[in-house]
Amino acid sequence: MNDMTPPTPLPHAPADHPAVRFGKTGVLIANLGTPDATDYWSMRRYLNEFLSDRRVIDYSPWIWQPLLQLVILTKRPFSSGEAYRGIWNTEADESPLMTITKEQTAKITERMKQRYGDDVIVDFCMRYGNPSTESRVNALIEKGCDRILFFPLYPHYAGATSATANDQFFRSLMKAKWQPAARTVAPYFEHPQYIDALARSVETAYGDLDERPDVLVTSYHGVPKRYLLEGDPYHCQCQKTSRLLKERLGWEDGEIVTTFQSRFGPEEWLKPYTVEEVARLAESGKKKIAVIAPAFSSDCVETLEEINEEIKESFEEAGGESFTYIPCLNADAAHIDVLSTVIEDNLKGWLD
């Protein structure tokens, strides 16, 4: 689809004023990011950008950067590359996160066209890696978007996810000669449609199983416990999502357990840790479990590799017998409904 409108003379401008594109509204979806490839240098570039973000690792650069550059980035690209190779979309030569984000964007574009015609242009960017936030902001401005709705694809707010995505968006706007009006989308962790979409994915997965799992583990990406104590609302929002999901399913206490994964570094992170909790469940007699990752809008290395391999292995080594991973909502129709509703709600006043 060609969404490049022809340049138009500005109203009331002199005849010799350069024609410009304007009058469009952009929706920019932002996901975490992905390496361009699985080789050492591609992984190193990606990890360097990610782990140098002060929102993600807030230690003093004088301490952190020598450790990162001389130790971590010497070894970690090899292990991370191996993890990505195990899930890589070889046909498209890209990570699953990239494939899914493209599909989400295409389906949301279709929905926005049905709702707003050609007035809205939808695109996506990555906080780390490509396509960069700045490149897509510039592309939307060049297509005539003088209003941009920025949508970090994180149901829950965290400084290390939503906030750093917004930071990068605003840094990009700082460089614009004609800066568009801008809005950011608030977290939607308690949105009824989101909770319903999660519940339906659980119901569908359970309906395909011969035996009902003893426990549903809701595994959220972790952050240091210190962030919670410093005012980050992420932990509370995750707990509320789990509670609302339990209520929507009509389940009893104990049928859903909230855990946190992907711990990094020496300090204490939010607990219980998923990898330890699934082993404890197995040892306590819960031999059949299912795991869902509500904080992820798209399946990625943390779900496809960490949950479906490392965490599954921890459960089975502790005596677990049946492990079911319930995929992220991805480009499922119910998820596209949620995201489209959130977008439409946030465009009110601009497009009514």
Fraction in helix? 40-55%
Describe the biggest sheet?
A: 4 strands, parallel
**Care to count the β-strands?**
8
Uncertain stretches: none
Strand neighbour order, sheet with most strands: 2-1-3-4
Shape: globular
Looking at the overall shape, the CATH architecture of one domain is 3-Layer(aba) Sandwich
Q: H/E order of the elements?
A: EHHHEHEHEHEHHEHEHEH
So how many helices? 11
Radius of gyration: 22 Å
Question: What's this model, at a glance?
Answer:
By secondary structure, the chain is α/β, with parallel strands linked by helices. It is 46% helix and 16% strand.
Overview of this protein structure:
This protein has 352 residues and is of the alpha/beta class. It has helices at residues 40-51, 61-85, 96-116, 133-142, 159-173, 192-207, 225-229, 234-249, 274-283, 301-317, 333-347, and strands at 24-34, 120-129, 145-152, 181-184, 215-221, 256-261, 288-292, 322-326. Among the domains are: 36-85, no CATH class; 192-326, Rossmann fold (3-Layer(aba) Sandwich). Strand 3, helix 5 and strand 4 (181-184) form a beta-alpha-beta unit.
Notable traits:
4-stranded parallel beta sheet; 8 strands; alpha/beta; single chain; 352 residues; Rossmann fold
List strands and helices in order, with pairings.
Layout: E1 24-34, H1 40-51, H2 61-85, H3 96-116, E2 120-129, H4 133-142, E3 145-152, H5 159-173, E4 181-184, H6 192-207, E5 215-221, H7 225-229, H8 234-249, E6 256-261, H9 274-283, E7 288-292, H10 301-317, E8 322-326, H11 333-347
Parallel strand pairs: 1-2, 1-3, 3-4, 5-6, 5-7, 7-8
Helix pairs in contact: 1-2, 3-11, 4-5, 6-8, 9-10
